[in-house]
Amino acid sequence: MENPKLWGPGGLCLNIQEDAGLETALLDGALKNNLPKLEFWGKITGTTDSYLIAVGYSPEYPFPKKTFFWTTTSEAHELKVMKVLDDDYAAHAKTLMNTPFTGDPATPYEIVRPEGYEPPPPKTDENGEPIPPEEFREEHKLAYHVSVIDNEVSIIPKGAWICDATHQVIKNVTNCGLTHEAAGSLRNYLHFRYPENDRSKQALVKPGVVRHGDFLDNLEDDAPKGCWGVHYSPDAKYSIVRSFYWPGSYFCHEIKTGNYVSVYFGDGLPNEDILFML
Amino acid sequence: MSFEEAKQYLRGKDEEGASLYEHLSRLLLKIIVEKPHNANAVFEQLSQDLREITQHAPSLLTELDTEPFDAEKISQLEWCRIACHLFTPTENEAAEISYPDLMTEANVFEWTGVNFGRTEVYQLYLAIKQKAKVEASSLRFWGKIFGRSSDYYVVQGVNPEPPPAEEVNIIEGMEGANKYAFWVCSKIGGEWTKLPNVLPDAIIVGRNINRFFTGDLNAPVPSYPPFPGGTEAHLLRSQIAQITAECSISPSGFYIEDDGVDEGIKAIKKVEEISEHRTIDELKELSSWVHHELLIDRNGRCNQPPMNEDEDSRPEQELQNQPILGSIAEDEVVDGPAWTISACPGTGDSPDSTVCVKSLKWPGAYAVAFGNKFTNIYCGFGCPSLRGVSYKIPATPGIQPEWALVDEEISALFEEEDRTTRPSPNENTEEEE
C-alpha cells in the first residue's frame, strides 16, 4: 500500500498485520528470487484464511515474464513461489473454477479420472527413482485462479508500459498519466498481458515505432458490454475501473500522474451470472 | 530515439499551442529569405526577435473572461463547493443526538480490510454529523455500496415517517423493516436522499433477483418477477433491509427482548449498560454472537400481520416462529456456516485484540468487537454471494387450472337454452320517422 490515497475509493485495504508482513516479504522475495521488485497483486479470501499474492516482472521478449508468489494472512511475512501447473492439473483446476476457497493451502481436491485412464509414466529423478505425482491441493487451484484472473483484470493506463525502440516492453518512467477526458474512456485502459487480439499482436512485432495504445488489448473490446465500469472520483482527481465479471478487481489512477494501482480483492470466483446482473 | 520520435518530440505543443519545431522552421526560413551575413553570430537575437512577433504575452484570466470551463473544472469546482460546505458548523444544536465516532471506528474497520481513506472518513464524519443535526435524530454510518458508475454512502437512523399502523397488511411500520430510514449520497457532502419505505413484496422479489446497482437512484430495474416500485431506490432499500436484518450482529448481552410493545409483536431494545465483559476466547466462538435486529421471514415481514377478517384468504402468511436474538452459529450457506471469525492481530492475540466476524452470504458485511464495544459495517456490491452456485431465474408460476365444477354445484347448474328476442316491428318504424 504505497499510495493509500489510491485505495480509498475502493473501500479496501490490507490490515496492519498483512501490510507489515508483506513489507518484509516483498523485499525478501525479490532478493531471493533475483527480481528487481515484487509488487502486491491482490488478496483472495477463503472461508477460514485469505491468500495474499505478489507478482514480480522480469524482462523477456516479446513480453515481460510474470512470476507469482503467495502466502496466507496468518503467515504474511513469508512468500512462496506459485506452482506452475501442467496441462493435466490446469484442466482439473478449470473444473473447480466455481468452488470457493477454504483458505487452507493443503486442502486436497480429488481428481476423478474417467474409467480406463492410464496415468502417464512417473517422472524420474537423477538417480532413476520415480517421483510420485504431487497431490492436487488448494495451492494448485490458487495458481490456476491467479493466472486466469491476472489475464483478465491486470490493467494499466495507456502509456504506463511502452514498447521501446528495441521492442522491449518496459515500464515508462516518464509516464504522465491520462488526461481527465481520456481517463473516462475504457479505450485508454489496457490489459497488461501478452495481447490476444491479432491487431495488437501485429503491432507488437512490426518494425518501427509502436504507439502506446497499439500493442496491448484495451478494455473497450471486452465482452459482454458493461463488464467493466469506469467512473471519476467525486473530486475528479482519480478514475476508478471495476470489473463486474471479476467482482473485487479494482483499479484506480490518479489523473495526470503516473500513479495507479491495480489489485484484486475477492473470493476468486468469476461472476457467471453477470448477464442477469447488468 | 528514432527520427520520427525526435520530430514528434520537437512538435510537442506548449500551453500557448506553439512548438519548437514550428519556431525553428520559421527561423530558418527567415534566415534563408533575409540572408543576413552574420547569421551564425546573431542566431540568438534573430530567434528572440521572431519570438516577440509570433508569441503574445501571456494573459492572466480575469473575471470577465467568458471562456467555457471544461468538464474537469466544472466537476472539481462543484466538489470544492460542497466539500467547503462540510466544514461550516450547522446551527441546530439539538440535545441528545448521537453520531458515530467514525475516526475511531475507521481504525477498527481496517482490521477487517475495509478502509475509506483517511480524509474521506473525516469528511464523512462531518457530513453525518451535519445530517444528524438537520434531522435532529441519531444516525449511524451503515456502509458503502458500489455501483457501476458511482457508489452510495449509506446512513441509518430511526424512521421519521414510518408507515401508519392501519396499513400493516400492505407495509410494515416501526415493528418491521421500516423501523429505520436510510439516507444515501454518492459523494461525501452531497445531498442525502432518503430512500422510500420498503414493502414486504419488494423484499420477496429482491431475494429472487440479482443485480448490480448502477449508481443512479432513478434508474429502472428491469427484472423478472417485476420489482415493486421499479426504480433503483426501491431495490437499494430492499437490499439494505435484508443486509441490516441478517448482518446486524453483536456479542450477546448488548440487546434484550423488548416487552414494552403490543402483544404478539416482537421487538428488541438495547441494554443501557452492559455488565459482563466478554473475553477474546469467548468472542471467538460463533455461539456468543447474536442477531440484534429482527429477521425478515419468507413473506418479507418481521412480524406476522394481524389476522385478516376472512381468515382463509391468505393461508400462506402462516409460518414458523422466528427466533429472536438468535445465535449466528445456526446460520448456513450452501457449503457450511455463514460466518467466519478471526482475531486480529492473529499473531500474539491479547485481551485488547479485536475480533472480526465476516459474512460469507453477504460479502462485505463485517462485525467487529473491540474492548467493550462492537460495530457493524458493510462495504460491497449489495448482492449476496451464491457461493459458486449459478443464479437461476425464478420459474414462471404454473398455469392456473381451469375453473372446475364441484359436484353439488353441477346439479344446481344447467345450461340455459338460447333465447332469441326479436325487436318489435313497431319500435323500428317509429325511429325511422
Total count of helical runs of at least 4 residues of chain A: 6
Helix content, binned percent of chain B: 25-40%
Q: Structural class from helices and strands of chain B? A: alpha+beta
Q: Percent helix among the residues of chain A? A: 10-25%
Instruction: Characterize the overall form of chain B.
Output: extended
- Taking the alpha carbons of the first and last residues of chain A, their distance comes to 31 Å
GO biological process, one term (chain A): cilium movement involved in cell motility
GO cellular component, one term (chain A): axoneme
Subcellular location (chain A): Cell projection, Kinocilium; Cytoplasm, Cytoskeleton, Flagellum axoneme
Main location (chain A): other
Overview of the structural elements:
The complex is a heterodimer of chains A (278) and B (433). With 278 residues, chain A is α+β, with helices and mostly antiparallel strands. Chain A is 21% helix and 23% strand. Chain A is built from six helices and twelve strands. The longest helix of chain A has 17 residues. Chain A starts with 15 loop residues before the first helix and ends with a helix. Chain B is of the alpha+beta class and 433 residues long. Chain B has two domains: 52 residues, no CATH class; 267 residues, no CATH class. In chain B, helix 2 packs across helix 3 and helix 7 packs across helix 8. Chains A and B meet through strand 9 of A and helix 4 and helix 5 of B. Chain B: InterPro entries: Radial_spoke (IPR006802). Chain B: Its main location: cytoplasm. Chain B: It comes from Pelagomonas calceolata.
